[in-house]
Please model this.
Amino acid sequence: YEQATRIPLIVSAPGVTKPGTRATNALVESVDLYPTLAELAGLPAPQVPQGLDGKSFLAELRDPDLGTKNHIFHVYPRGERIGRAVRTAQFRLVEWKVPGAPADTADLELYDYAKDPLETKNVAADQPEVVARMRALVATLPEARLQFRPAKDAARQKEERTALFEKKDANHDDKLTRVEFLSNQPDPGDAAKRFERFDTNHDGVLSRDEFIHMGASPTVIPPATK
Model:
């Protein structure tokens, strides 16, 4: 991700940058170019009804040690899933899931660049506190748009939840206990509430159908919500 999401960005601004100015490790995004150019040109701050995504990095041009952002985002489609990611100075979290699907269907990748700059180990399972903090940042993004026809959505959702059930069913008894369901959940509080909602017959375990259909009728896949 570190190589794939970085692009050449060289700025020479009269009266601001000097020849030989060193590079900065500040976090910036391509959406920051617009407000930066506007500020360099002495134009009023751009105003758009929905709010501007970018933020001027003129301060970093004047002082490479400054940083106006403590995190940045990137999004990448892979088949019918979307990878929404957030990068901080130390970590990157990538959340892979079908747009609109429940949070517990996501696969997570977490990399610690202080210890692993080459991204050789996914440490999401080892650092749940960092995952929770990073996912809260991802949650501020709008939900990714569908990259496939809605007609395929129900079939794909059923397929992915079936695979997730098999993964969670540790003893292969074709049912999930509360412990199995809550294992590795990024949001244990909300996950406990989902367990109660999915357990339609209130027997304390989730059958395959209850999990796959999230407590709804087996013939209907409900809208994907938490």
About this structure: Strands lie at 72-78, 81-87, 91-97, 107-112, 175-177, 205-207. The helical segments are 33-40, 58-62, 128-138, 153-168, 178-182, 188-198, 208-212. The two ends are 28 Å apart (CA to CA).
